[in-house]
């Protein structure tokens, strides 16, 4: 990863950190509102919950993009997800083929040989 890319990646992660702090502030505000002696204001709780959920989604997207870009730059440094998934899929395909061959052998064994 070149220094420029690494720097922008760090900046994006710092922005995510700020958004996580903001999300915690929103959650705290909702908790305070729910604990209000006069009862929670529905519009306040609804708007803050929507903002909370949207912020969480945005954070997830950003983190996924950062993980993906880190994997693209360093495919052999602790990022073997793609190869593990491909390996698992191949293993399941192989198990399926073996089961089909086993069923085929059972079918063939039911018929008398023509020797």
UniProtKB/TrEMBL annotation:
Keyword Transcription regulation recorded: yes
Family from the record: Belongs to the Mediator complex subunit 11 family.
Protein name: Mediator of RNA polymerase II transcription subunit 11
Signal peptide: none
InterPro entries per record: Mediator_Med11 (IPR019404)
Compartment(s): Nucleus
An example Gene Ontology CC term for this record: mediator complex
Subunit structure: Component of the Mediator complex.
Encoding gene, per UniProt annotation: MED11
Record GO biological process: regulation of transcription by RNA polymerase II
Primary location group: nucleus
Alphabetic keyword roster: Activator, Nucleus, Transcription, Transcription regulation
Top-level taxon of origin: Eukaryota
Alphabetical list of Gene3D superfamilies matching this protein: 1.10.287.3490
One Pfam family this sequence matches: Med11
Entry GO MF terms: transcription coregulator activity
Function description: Component of the Mediator complex, a coactivator involved in the regulated transcription of nearly all RNA polymerase II-dependent genes. Mediator functions as a bridge to convey information from gene-specific regulatory proteins to the basal RNA polymerase II transcription machinery. Mediator is recruited to promoters by direct interactions with regulatory proteins and serves as a scaffold for the assembly of a functional pre-initiation complex with RNA polymerase II and the general transcription factors.
